[in-house]
Design a protein that fits this description.
This protein is about 45% helix and about 25% strand. α4 runs antiparallel to α5. The protein contains 14 helices and 13 strands. With about 350 residues, it is of the alpha+beta class. A hairpin with a 3-residue loop joins β5 and β6. Strands 5-6-1-7-8 form a five-stranded mixed sheet. Strands 9, 10, 11, 12 and 13 form a five-stranded antiparallel sheet that branches. Strands 3-2-4 form a three-stranded mixed sheet, sandwiched between helices. Among the domains are: about 60 residues, MutS, DNA mismatch repair protein, domain I; about 55 residues, 5' to 3' exonuclease, C-terminal subdomain (DNA polymerase, domain 1, Orthogonal Bundle); about 110 residues, Dna Ligase, domain 1, CATH 3.30.1490.100. The structure holds a DNA duplex (18 and 18 nucleotides).
DNA sequence: TCTGGGGTCCTCTGTCGA
DNA sequence: TCTGTCGACAGAGGACCC
């Protein structure tokens, strides 16, 4: 594939920027979007708040200590989804192939555009003008290079890199810079005295295979060398849907857990019925007070979506698990999703 | 310090039928 | 009839992403 050209578009501090759009008086202040409970975490922080050391996924209580004068806002995901749809509609009008990732990111296949770099500069300007939101754009021969390029100079970044250019520029960067190498893998790599992408790219294959297995070892090296040929895919197939909740305080009473589970099942099944989807595998997730996470699942002969079918299975799994310690999180999941058949839809229509 | 919610994908292990 | 092998599938856990 000669001259492949992919862009990664990443909205800058998306949730905070969306909040500032409707509350412009907060511009220039340290704004932090975080949940309200004692166990909430930070969803996004403005660049002003980041200067205090506040970052995504940090416990909100810690963010308050680091930035006591910050403005804390509760997330409003319905509004963020609405603004995201606005943004993606503008992006969609400028390219044929678009892969939306979450609310604030997308990959764009630019292969067919005559002047892709200029087109992306026009797109960034159009987004700013029409939505008031800034973005960073990375362009490269693959999704991997484009993604890392868009992260390199945030906010309002515009970085174009070749594969060799990316390798040279990030040779001294920590391995965790590339998506797919998370904190656990970074630690394991460090155990082999591999702490930069350059060292990982140059490591003997047998050393990586001995430590990570041949498959993962080779994959890590491909990532470090910025080798990637994954396609920009328009439609991501949804294979499961779940609802979960973390309690403000741990729960020990089984009947209280079952009540919460019933409410989660209701929320999940309402969504599934609305989307006319159903699944065969019902699962529960239990996180105990020691932060250990346990899952139990059961696969049925027939796909289901209604609360009166999912509920008893989920409760049965919870009873059989019989939590040995206080529970901090409970969740329910339906997997193996497929569209509801016309027969099921007819039954559904009759029951309404 | 004390770790959300909603997802995907991978690996390992056990089971079952051909 | 018994035994070993292999693949498919399910279940569980974990890493990772936004």
């Amino acid at each position: 594939m000669l001259g492949r050209c992919v862009a990664h578009l990443d909205m800058d501090a998306f949730y905070v920027s969306v909040e500032l759009r409707r509350r412009p008086e907060l511009r220039g202040r340290a704004v932090i979007v975080a949940g309200g409970g004692p166990r909430a975490v930070v969803t996004t922080a403005s660049y002003e708040a980041r200067r205090f050391g506040v970052g995504s996924a940090m416990p909100a209580a810690r963010a308050r200590r680091l930035c006591p004068d910050g403005v804390f806002l509760t997330p409003d995901f319905a509004y963020y989804r609405q603004v995201s749809a606005e943004v993606m509609a503008i992006v969609r009008a400028s390219v044929e192939t678009l892969e939306v990732v979450g609310l604030d990111e997308a990959y764009l296949e630019l292969g067919n555009l005559p002047a892709p770099h200029a087109a992306m500069r026009r797109l960034a300007a159009a987004l700013e003008q029409r939505t008031g939101l800034g973005c960073s754009i990375g362009i490269g021969p693959s999704k991997l290079v484009a993604k890392v390029a868009s992260d390199a100079e945030k906010p309002r970044g515009f970085v174009v890199l070749s594969q060799a250019g990316a390798r040279a520029r990030f040779a001294g960067a920590p391995c965790g810079l590339v998506p797919g190498i998370g904190p656990k893998t970074v630690e394991r790599l460090r155990g082999s005295r591999i702490d930069t992408l350059g060292k990982l790219a140059a490591a003997p294959a047998e050393v990586l295979a001995a430590r990570f297995g041949s498959r993962l070892g080779a994959e890590l090296q491909r990532l470090a060398r910025f080798e990637d040929d994954s396609p920009v895919t328009q439609q991501r197939k949804v294979v499961s849907e779940s609802r979960e909740t973390t309690f403000d305080y741990d729960i020990t009473r089984p009947e209280q857990l079952e009540q919460v589970l019933a409410a989660l099942v209701d929320r999940l099944c309402t969504a599934l019925v609305q989307q006319r989807r159903r699944g065969r595998t019902i699962g529960i997730k239990v996180r105990l007070d020691d932060f250990s996470t346990h899952t139990r699942a059961r696969t049925l002969a027939e796909p289901v979506s209604s609360a009166d079918r999912v509920g008893p299975v989920a409760v049965g799994l919870l009873r059989r698990f019989s939590a040995p310690r206080p529970v901090r999180l409970l969740g329910v999941r339906v997997a193996g999703l497929e569209p509801a058949s016309s027969e099921t839809e007819a039954q559904l229509a009759l029951s309404l």
